[in-house]
Amino acid sequence: MPISPLDTGRYGSPEMRKIFGAAITIRNSQANHERILIFQQAKTYLDDHFTDQELKMSVVARKFNISPSHFSTIFHREFGKTFRDYLGELRLNHAKELLRTTNLKIAEIAYQSGFTDSHYFSFVFKKKTGITPRQFRAQS
Question: Can you give the pTM of this predicted structure?
Fold first, then answer.
């Protein structure tokens, strides 16, 4: 039975609204899936390159063709922490492992963990753990 233009109302027939609604849902689902994949790839990239002292959010965002501000927003939404916090945790966890398993100097551990300055590393380490890297090593 053909639908009269008078029966379609302002936004079309209920059937048309249903079809358009389903199309929008599919489009949004695909976009969401693509976003999740991109951010999983970004996380993997960070996990593999966190020791690079030049690693910055703008560099990673550019690598995935996303503006830094949008990258920052979505990263926080996807992982529950900021890019900076996530990168800092990776670096500190790596430093803790080196403190536990090697006899490297603190400055070398800082460098190998992605920090450019051993004093800043010690400051951040104590701020996050409550103890200095030397104290951490002695306790391990």
Answer: 0.76
* CATH no. of 86-139: 1.10.10.60
Tens digits of residue pLDDT in 101-134? 999 999 999 999 999 999 999 999 999 999 999 9
Closest to 46 in 3D by CA, of 116, 14, 93: 93
- The first and second tokens of residue 47, run together, are 């996990």
Calculate ∠ Cα 108-113-119, nearest 5°.
Answer: 60
Instruction: Report H helices in 4-117.
Output: 14-49, 57-63, 68-79, 83-101, 106-112
Domain with CATH 1.10.10.60 in the chain: 86-139
Q: How many residues does the chain have?
A: 140
Q: Residue holding tokens 């951490």? A: 136
Integer Cα distance of 49 and 70 in angstroms? 21
State how far the Cα of 29 lies from the Cα of 47, in Å rounded to an integer.
Answer: 27
Q: Crossing angle of helices 83-101/68-79, nearest 10°?
A: 60
